[in-house]
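Input sequence (246 aa), recorded before submission:
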Amino acid sequence: MASVRQPAVAGTFYSADASELDSTVAAHLDSPLAWDIAAKALVVPHAGHVYSGAIAGTAYASVRHLAAEIKRVVLLGPAHRVAFKGIAVPSADAHATPLGDIPVDWQGVAGTLALPQVHINDAAFENEHSLEVNLPFLQRALGEFALVPLLVGDARPEGVEQVLRKLWGGPETLIVISTDLSHFHDYDAAQKLDASATRAIETFNVEGLSGELACGFRPLSGLLRAAQRLDLRPTTLDVRNSGDTA
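Predicted structure, token format:
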């Protein structure tokens, strides 16, 4: 029998009511800052939708035109609740949100489990929000797809890059890195710190990223290493903090 990971933060980080959630996500996707871009990867936030939804909406709306091509999403985010070494994947066959179930691409997951830094670790996903918060946006923007959920603990950028290179694929695969930027600062300080993080991303400055600038700096650093090797170009779509949104 297939196992399904039930949502852990529905009703707190986003609405548990399917109709309300669908309407809210659709409104965020109607972003005036979005434009059709041939993106291989996205960097998106994972705070509660009231704080991060507008920025996430800009990112996901910008790849909505690729929905017919994208069949798989490789989603990486930082672990907030459990400390562990390496990269965790859950044993579930699907991930549920109020909008429905998303099947796991177990062929892709199995390929990553051949690497020493990747392990099945269900405990790491308990009450974890960094991946889940993005799933309703992916469902609304892309429709049907398979998911490779990867929770990054204490992992080297080289190890994350290795996983990404194994899963990179072609136009059928979208890479998504889930990270917020600075936390718990006044508005002016947050703007300065977030500008530093943005410059580091735009210039592939992996050494310039840290947990102070981005909680998901580990998966983000792995993406930047992979993107630079492939001569891809980072493009900033939207940068705001909770003082701008909520």
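Checked by second reader. The chain has a mean pLDDT of 95.
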